[in-house]
Give the backbone structure.
Amino acid sequence: MTTRPLIAMAMLFLLDPLPLQASEFRLITYADGRPDGGIRQSADTSESVDSPGDIFVFDQKLLAEDADTVIGRNAGYCIRTDPGSRDYSGTDHPDLPDDPDNNYGQCTWSLVFTAESGYQGTVVVSGRESDKGTSVLPLVGGTGDFHNIPGVLHTTPIPHKDGGVLYRQELVFSRSPGKVNR
């Protein structure tokens, strides 16, 4: 047997590695947008109407799946891209249906986990988020237990009876975060 077939087989193995045995891992949190959950403040107070380019910032409690236990902070900002109000309806992509009762923003924020969560580190997400329905945003980075773990965040606003909103956030990772990543 010549070495040529062996080299060819080795090159094929390097070019086509075995598939990863990835197991999806889900972590559910809530961002507390209720009046006592933290701040959510507009940086544009000159107009009473929500308009393109308006910015709002937030720094809220990050809650566990029970929607009660504080496990960190949820902080970031959104720039309003399509407020959906009648004055701006039709300003986004012409191929996408407009919803004059919904608002959209380009948002970036961090989920910062404390020791109470059982994790150490931060997850950063960025993308288009709607004020109604579920938005899916990519994870753009992570530290600590979340370092180099690809995934997405499904975020759904849930109006609260006492005012404000709880944002259900389901993190979907390609593998379980934990000490193996440190």
